[in-house]
Amino acid sequence: MSRTIAMMLALLGFMASAPALAARGHAADVDPRIGTGGDGHTFPGATVPFGMIQLSPDTAMPDFRHAYHWAAGYQYGDGSLLGFSHTHFSGSGHSDLGDVLVMPIAGDVRLEPGDPAKPGSGYRSRFSHASEVVQAGYYAVTLSDYGVRAELTAGRRIGWHRYSFPAGKPAHLLLDLRPSIYDYPGKVLWASLRVHADGTVSGCRSTRGWAPGRELCFALRFSQPMTSRELYNRETDITYKGFKGPGNQAEDRDAQGGRALLGVFDFGKLKQPLEVKVAISPVSEANAIANLDQDGAGWDFDARRAEAKAAWDRALAVVDVDAPKTAKTQFYTALYHAMLSPTLSMDANGDYRGPDHAVHRAEGFDFYSTWSLWDVYRAQQPLMVLLHSERSTDFIRSLIAAREASPFGILPVWAYQGLETWCMIGYHAVPVIADAYVKGVRGFDADKALEAMVASATYAPYGDLADYMKLGYVPIDKEPEGASKTLEYAYDDWSLAQMAKAMGRADIAATFGKRAANWRHAWDPQTGFMRARLADGTFREPFDPEAAGYGSDYTEGNAWQYSWYVPQDVAGLIGAMGGDAKFVARLDALFEAKVDPSHFKHVEDITGLIGWYAHGNEPSHHIAYLYDYAGAPWKTQARLKQIMDSQYAARPDGLSGNDDLGQMSAWYVFTALGVYPVTPGSDEYAIGRPFVARAALHLGHGRTFTISASPLDDAHPYVGAVTLNGQPLQRSYLRHGEIVAGGELHFTMQAQPNREWGSAASARPAAMSRYGQ
């Protein structure tokens, strides 16, 4: 064979196997409307994978007393739009952002948003869903009160707008720096707004929101020259007017500062669409302009839209699935939602803002923030380790960098745009790092990572770690939600021990392996539930296993939901509950209980009930897989079908709870593939059953792992047999190395349960006893 022919064949082989299978265009299978209704809290607007810009329509930015349903700024059931802002969380249960709100206006301009129930009372406009086009990387809608066609797309740091105005009407763009998602009086501490000699508009806004003292700066440019402009400070009701004609010079009146700023930019009667490009920066106005200069060259909206779609095609091409159209839409939308966060939070020059509020510079990596770690450590980050491990390297370097800039010397808890909110519990950056390291992700300083993990797990003031380290549990008379904190700390400790062991640090592994057994201090054999103890060692009384919410023993859950949270030692939990049969019966009781959903009306996040199981919130997410550990994987298979059928749908209200920055969606992706990371920090996945007939995971270096199932239909819901690379697989778990090596996992499905497959003690996923301490 000649060298030329060999090279051609090698090239053809590479082309056939590489994730450049994106040419199939999986972006077209995404429906960003899923989750925009009900409690999903997703946004429908334009963004790119892990991008800094989330350019999306806002139907409301109500005050903090009514903000829960508008955590992403948009609710599908609303009939009017406030405008389009550039920053959003996807699926959060709390919120902020909604920065740099703009609204195109044709005709008369009103300066206040107005009442949604009174059309024409303000600048907001009605719209129809029939006019919306919602795609990965693109959003369009017609503002019916103005007759303006609005189109949005995005790059990593730039939001691109195109507005087509009706002929004969004056065109305006309103920029409002007052509104904010989860708003309340005095949230805006200060804002600035200025018009430069070249027509660039820039400014900054500082808020005391969820992350106090957050500053975001921006810069925008227009494709058409302004005919006039007006800058307003509604705090004092002062108006400044400036004009930029031939020979006109910029004056101080072209800049404004205050706490209630907006600007109106006029363009006359346009004969062609107005394009707008907007850059943001968490650091400075100058950096925002530099971002615009570097990432926002030219005026070609259609080219930018094509680039956004191509970015999604590349990211989604890591998995090819064969499934009916609706199932394919659900799968790729879930994968899309799992790749929205964490978000880039770094300027083009490498500058980013740290939790100390100071400016730092990333050297050799991209800095990411927006870390809902209590949620995403469970499945969203393990999914990235499996499918996009190169991203995980930058994610971990970002966590380490944030720790180094922390005034407290610990890893992020719930951070965005570099700043800490201290929301939720645990030190769950630890399992994110440990899971990646144990599964072979490198490219970061492991010694620094381990140092950061130990620092986070021993910082006494955080969440009463002082008492936890002294007593082995968090006393409820010293710290709220003591049972949940004890359980979550113990798991985090176990994951830390796994990384230390993998690094050869036996001393650290022994210390934290011992702490991993602290879950036993929360176990009450008398009631059969996990409970909080007082500092004197007694359990708090009175005890109600159905009680949930702040002030109880638990975080966003009750005893029925949290008593299963020992992912690092399921075997120990099974023993504590009396063995396999009693454990399985107790799981059945959880799922089959008769529970009135109004029981949790005071706890907004507990949704998606199947008995006491609450799929709409994260503490329940591993529970259906626990049957595997007790030798009853056929029951896991049945419960998964029950959950998939009832908790997900390809419609706006198709998520049973907050997507929580991709965690709900990542659960769907893993479950559809047939495996789930019950215990991040181990190299094992519990096997469930697939919900797509075939999935090819393109894992780089020419390796593909294919998962297939047949016959796959409602008449055959159970696993009859499994083969790995053609050989019978009797165990109900798969190792990470077996997946990334490439190969094929095949499920033979059947109508009745196979009660023998995976039932042997040696066939079950790992428990703490197998890993040791």
From TrEMBL:
One of its GO terms (biological process) is glycoprotein catabolic process. The keyword Signal applies. Residues 287-750 form the Glycosyl hydrolase family domain. Residues 1-22 form the signal peptide. Residues 30-281 form the Glycosyl hydrolase family 92 N-terminal domain. GO terms for molecular function: carbohydrate binding; peptide-N4-(N-acetyl-beta-glucosaminyl)asparagine amidase activity. The keyword Signal applies. Keywords: Signal. GO terms for cellular component: cytosol. PANTHER family: PEPTIDE N-GLYCANASE PNGASE -RELATED, SECRETED PROTEIN. This is Alpha-1,2-mannosidase, putative. It comes from Rhodanobacter denitrificans.
